[in-house]
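Backbones bend. Our protein:
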Amino acid sequence: MGTPLIEKSFCTTREAAALLGVSVGTVQLWVESGLLQAWKTAGGHRRVLRDSVDSLLRKVPAPSIPAQAPAQSLTASASPAGAGSQGKSRRLTVLVVEDDIHLLRLYEVHLAKWPMAPEVIAVNSAVAGLVMMGRCNPDLLITDLHMPGMDGFEMIRVLARLPEAASTNIVVVTGLDAEDIQSRGGLPADVAVLPKPIPFDKLLNIAQATAELARYRWDATTAAAA
């Protein structure tokens, strides 16, 4: 009789990163933030509890907002057809974090009409938002603040320590007023705050400016790699 296969109850940070679809640095940050449970061996190596990885994976549903088609590039409105490599830039990526499923549906309807036809990913919790940030590094993050469990404040504080999130434009859409926000520790100065009901016209203006900046970065990166 063969020896039964016993699944490990822990994994390395590299194995956890592969399972979650994020970088090793992101896993290390999540361990430090308490999002993942881990310990260090006598040799100083981190070991992550497999249960905590599986628990995190269960909190990330499939995106509720499908990518819109046909795809348009970030340069579609600024470059003529056949303008060379600039016409092949990627689409603007938008991550929406909102625990109200009805508001997620409202975002779906409105963002589908945006002229740059963004790729939209929507999740209903801050934990899922962190995982998706680590996976897709979006150009624009639109998030609520008041959510059960980990709230938007804590998510943004974790993102402030994540190098991969440095280029993401963060916009908060909330029912909290300025005094409420300050009483909960405030937000970074570069985070825009918009009131509910959702001001889609202002969000579109922000998305257009974000798309222009993303296009500039994309073209600069492409030129440097050429």
